[in-house]
């Protein structure tokens, strides 16, 4: 039996409480709407890898013409890494089921987390090497006491064009005016449901109205578009997809439907995944005048506008239609580890994974604290970037691969 069908048969009713419509996974896979093909498209064979490498080299050549990106940020497939995501904390004021394991996570002791000065020193190193966009994430970045100072110092780095933040919005409405003054130029606010009781179920905390307030506060402050991240999970919120799209009629927001991804401790099952094609099909049937907007080669989202709507709709298709070929992202974790890919190196046999995990996640904090200079740090970063794989190995292998919980990595 093909592996994906075997996994589908492991039926597990994780979201039964909110599963009003009976889930028809069998007919979904038999429907011939290309989902089966999309679902396994993450697996890379040799010729595909080579094709991606050629495409990436072409992109890199084009980009290098007008961009002073240092070799440190170019991987062995020619991809330029101009986007750094910095996780500021492993702590959070919510406990989202798809991000935080039920038993919680072991927190890195505070002295081992990067300090403000260390974040700014590393940020400066990346920006002076060609990074032009930084996103602050976590955990919940707004709970860091020095968040304003972090924004101020990073936004002043010469060459940085965008300072973005992904936040759960719980305390954003209050903090955003000051953060904007400190240079925060783009916000993504996470919201998975428009129903307060469902919010409490998925986040294991109250706070729905505060998130809604934060979205409005961001609009009022002139952020345009305000990005709204919605992780879609079958049986939990897939019945709300069109309600979220309806919000874009009057609000200048970009609703971003994210395919549910597997991480340690989040009980990922393929039956909970709602594919890009299925989401698009539902939106297309309900809203006429849905048009694809041209995307940049490094864009992770498939973007759409709808006639008469102020806002837009996007799909982040990491699972069924990955965007590794144009990936320009690097990650600095709160404990100072540097990660070149969100997912583990699962193209390799399992017994080699632990060793390889160490190879793609290296500490920048330790050498920094041992007094290495910027050139030595650049060598460590450059070597890690060169080890980056062509693509992730596909969702089924990812689901079996040791990785950290999402809350440790920062989405
Ligand atoms: C880890 S959170 C950190 C920032 C902030 N606490 C927040 O929730 O926006 C970053 C993003 O990752 C998304 N995310 C977390 N776990 C995910 C998963 N298993 N699949 C897809 N997206 C996920 C969240 O919805 C959020 O938009
Ligand atoms: S998704 Fe964000 S808000 Fe939810 S638990 Fe993870 S870090 Fe916290």
Automatic annotation (TrEMBL):
| Catalysed reactions, semicolon-separated | GTP + AH2 + S-adenosyl-L-methionine = (8S)-3',8-cyclo-7,8-dihydroguanosine 5'-triphosphate + 5'-deoxyadenosine + L-methionine + A + H(+)
User: Which top-rank group of organisms is this from?
Assistant: Eukaryota
Which terms under GO biological process does the entry name?
Answer: Mo-molybdopterin cofactor biosynthetic process
Cofactor(s) the protein needs: [4Fe-4S] cluster
Q: Which UniProt keywords apply?
A: 4Fe-4S, GTP-binding, Iron, Iron-sulfur, Lyase, Metal-binding, Molybdenum cofactor biosynthesis, Nucleotide-binding, S-adenosyl-L-methionine
Provide any one GO MF term from the record. Answer: 4 iron, 4 sulfur cluster binding
Q: What organism, scientifically named, is this protein from?
A: Ilex paraguariensis
Q: Which residues form a coiled coil?
A: none
Its name, as the record gives it, is GTP 3',8-cyclase
* Residue stretches making up the Radical SAM core domain: 76-290
Checking InterPro entries in the record gives: Aldolase_TIM, Elp3/MiaA/NifB-like_rSAM, MoaA, MoaA-like, MoaA_NifB_PqqE_Fe-S-bd_CS, MoaA_twitch, MoCo_biosynth_MoaA/MoaC, rSAM
The record, for SUPFAM superfamilies, names:
Radical SAM enzymes
| Pathway named in the protein's UniProt entry | Cofactor biosynthesis; molybdopterin biosynthesis
What CDD domains does the entry give? Radical_SAM (cd01335), Twitch_MoaA (cd21117)
Q: For this protein, what is the EC number?
A: 4.1.99.22
**A Pfam family in this protein?**
Radical_SAM
């Amino acid at each position: 039996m093909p592996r994906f069908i075997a996994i589908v048969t492991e039926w597990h009713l994780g979201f039964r409480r909110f599963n009003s419509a009976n889930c028809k996974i069998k007919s979904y896979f038999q429907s011939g709407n290309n989902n089966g093909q999309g679902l396994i498209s993450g697996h890379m064979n040799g010729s595909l890898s080579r094709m991606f490498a050629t495409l990436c080299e072409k992109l890199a050549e084009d980009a290098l013409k007008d961009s002073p990106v240092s070799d440190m940020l170019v991987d062995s497939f020619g991809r330029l890494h101009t986007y750094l995501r910095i996780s500021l904390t492993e702590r959070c004021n919510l406990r989202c089921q798809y991000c935080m394991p039920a038993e919680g996570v072991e927190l890195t002791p505070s002295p081992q987390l990067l300090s403000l000065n260390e974040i700014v020193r590393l940020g400066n190193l990346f920006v002076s090497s060609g990074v032009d966009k930084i996103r602050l994430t976590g955990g919940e970045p707004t709970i860091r006491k020095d968040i304003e100072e972090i924004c101020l110092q990073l936004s002043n780095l010469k060459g940085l064009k965008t300072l973005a933040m992904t936040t759960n919005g719980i305390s954003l409405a209050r903090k955003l005016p000051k953060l904007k003054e400190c240079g925060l130029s783009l916000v993504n606010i996470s919201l998975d449901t428009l129903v307060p009781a469902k919010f409490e179920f998925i986040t294991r905390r109250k706070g729905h109205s505060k998130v809604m307030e934060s979205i409005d506060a961001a609009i009022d402050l002139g952020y345009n578009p305000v990005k709204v991240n919605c992780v879609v999970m079958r049986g939990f919120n897939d019945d709300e997809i069109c309600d979220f799209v309806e919000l874009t009629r009057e609000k200048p927001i970009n609703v971003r439907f994210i395919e549910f991804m597997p991480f340690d401790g989040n009980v990922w099952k393929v039956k909970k995944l709602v594919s890009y094609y299925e989401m698009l099909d539902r939106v297309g049937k309900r809203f006429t005048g849905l048009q694809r907007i041209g995307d940049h080669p490094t864009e992770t989202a498939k973007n759409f506008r709808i006639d008469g709507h102020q806002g837009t709709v996007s799909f982040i298709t990491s699972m069924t239609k990955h965007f590794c070929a144009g990936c320009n992202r690097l990650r600095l974790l709160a404990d100072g580890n540097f990660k070149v890919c969100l997912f583990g190196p699962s193209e390799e046999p399992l017994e080699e994974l632990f060793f390889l995990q160490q190879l793609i996640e290296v500490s920048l904090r330790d050498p920094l604290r041992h007094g290495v200079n910027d050139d030595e740090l650049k060598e460590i970063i450059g070597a890690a970037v060169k080890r980056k794989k062509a693509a992730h190995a596909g969702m089924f292998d990812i689901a079996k691969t040791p990785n950290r919980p999402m809350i440790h990595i920062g989405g």
